[in-house]
Write a structure and sequence with these properties.
The chain has about 500 residues and is of the alpha+beta class. Helix content is about 60%, strand content about 10%. The protein contains 17 helices and 10 strands. The two termini are about 30 Å apart.
């Protein structure tokens, strides 16, 4: 790879290392000092721009790397301090806006509240709440409140860290008679309106016969709603190496783009009017991302597809490595805590690996005029690469490696295509009961078949192996994978013909 053609990669490496460094030494980070250092280094960079030839002056490169390292540190520290300082001054009372529907826990109900400062608090109440709507204001007198960035009990440390990195500064508990609600009188915000719309779509699914476990799969793959998925189903998909199917990502967005291109008549429009079709597709993608919760993997996919669609219209080459790097940089600028999101890590690891090695992988394709064989061969190669690149990280987070990932992906891909396309037709023919009922049967059969296949594959004794490497071992594994992949990819492979 020619690094000169991908300058952003050389900058996001120190940018990311700065965030990692800030996370490791967060107790020593001072926003004022970091801001002053950024200003000083930025001044040096302007000095070199005016006084030197940038391509020949390595000092400017060093200054740029230092600046991005400090910017990464500053953004991460700022995000951390914002959430840390979001803890209420009065730790005996809580007030905030309900931003998620109540979730049932073992002995309580959890309410996610957004305070005026934008930081969230997770309030546990002792009784089942009734007639609550998103946007309602909840006030409570709490018995105790615990900050999520401080945990004396190691058994809750991982969970508290998860909550903090998702913008929740504290957890609190209020008895059943110590909280009250003030119902929303004004229109909800865009995000809350999107969440309400998602719940309305869930009820439409339910009213038309799409429910139970099959309905949970359909909703997860079309609406991004996974609240009704059982833990056994999640575990089965994870053991079979298919968790990515339940998480909206580039695969799902690609299907939507193909459908939108047909729906907006892109192939039939004159070139001078194709920009209308491209803009409509981009707008549809972001509305869909908003409706489904703006998950990191879906935001990454939307950014990259937006770049791709714009480059297609401008008749320019869309370099996937650059678009992947830009999406990575943009998302971390918007929310540095994406760095801790497992979906974010796996998404960029898989897509980044494909972007880096796709050109060399294409040399391994069998040369055949049969489109089915070509698709199957490319699917095997890409799936194998993704499984190899994500295996150490999956093992680090979940303590296991799914050995049947390649086989299960090849088997399930046709079902995923069938479910996605059928669900689109289901919504288009919602007004026509006979056709809609037929499509409901197809959707339920597809989802139930997927569940049966996944359950069988995950139950095999050799489906997974238990292994949980530490941080250093995970880094070492990726170093070995990169070195081996690099030397193998440099060799000219034999060409197959069918």
């Amino acid at each position: 790879m020619n690094w000169q053609n991908h300058p952003l990669i050389r900058l996001i490496i120190p940018f990311t290392l700065g965030m990692i460094g800030a996370n490791l030494f967060i107790s020593h980070m001072d926003m004022k000092v970091l801001f002053i250092l950024c200003c000083v280094v930025l001044a040096f960079s302007f000095f070199f721009i005016k006084t030197s030839q940038l391509k020949k002056d390595s000092r400017f490169g060093l200054v740029a790397i230092t600046l991005f390292f400090l910017v990464g540190m500053t953004l991460y520290t700022g995000k951390y301090r914002h959430i840390e300082n979001g803890l209420p001054n009065d730790t005996t009372s809580v007030q905030g806006t309900l931003v998620e529907l109540p979730k049932e826990k073992t002995h309580s109900w959890a309410l996610k509240l957004e305070q005026e400062n934008g930081v969230h608090i997770l309030l546990y109440i002792g009784n089942q709440p009734k007639d609550l709507s998103l946007g309602d204001t909840i006030s409570a007198q709490v018995l105790h409140m615990n900050a999520t960035n401080h945990c004396e009990d190691d058994s809750f440390k991982t969970y508290n860290s998860y909550l903090f990195h998702h913008g929740i500064c504290a957890t609190a508990y209020a008895p059943h008679d110590r909280w009250k609600v003030k119902h929303r009188l004004t229109s909800p915000s865009i995000l809350l309106a999107a969440k309400e719309q998602q719940e309305d779509l869930h009820h439409i699914y339910d009213e038309h016969g799409i429910s139970d476990e099959a309905g949970s799969i359909i909703e997860a793959m079309t609406l991004g709603r996974k609240t009704t998925l059982s833990s056994d189903t999640r575990q089965a998909y994870a053991d079979a190496g298919l968790s990515h199917i339940l998480a909206l990502s580039g695969f799902h967005v690609g299907i939507i783009v193909l459908m939108m291109q047909a729906f907006f008549l892109k192939s039939f429009l004159p070139f001078r009017w194709q920009w209308v079709s491209q803009l409509l597709i981009i707008a549809t993608l972001w509305c869909y991302a908003l409706l489904t919760g703006m998950s990191p993997s879906l935001v990454r996919a939307n950014i990259m597809f937006t770049i791709l669609l714009l480059c297609q219209f401008l008749n320019r080459e869309a370099i996937s490595i650059n678009s992947c790097a830009f999406a990575f940089f943009l998302m971390l600028c918007l929310n540095p805590f994406y760095l801790h999101d497992i979906g974010f890590q796996l998404s960029f690891l898989a897509v980044g690996g494909i972007a880096l090695y796709a050109q060399r992988i294409t040399q391994l394709y069998c040369h055949t005029h049969n489109p089915i064989l070509r698709f199957l061969w490319s699917l095997i190669l890409i799936t194998s690469l993704c499984a190899l690149l994500t295996a150490p990280l999956v093992a680090h987070h979940f303590g296991r490696i799914p050995l049947l990932s390649l086989v299960s992906n090849i088997i399930l891909i046709p079902f995923v295509y069938l479910l996605m396309w059928t669900s689109i037709l289901w919504w288009l023919f919602l007004w026509c009961e006979p056709i809609n009922n037929m499509l409901t049967e197809v959707l339920n059969w597809t989802a139930n078949s997927m569940n049966a296949i996944v359950e069988h594959l995950s139950s095999l004794p050799f489906a997974t192996i238990q292994w949980q490497p530490g941080v250093l071992m995970t880094i070492f594994c990726y170093a070995v994978v990169l070195v081996i992949t690099y030397f193998i990819s440099r060799k000219t492979p034999a060409k197959f013909s069918v």
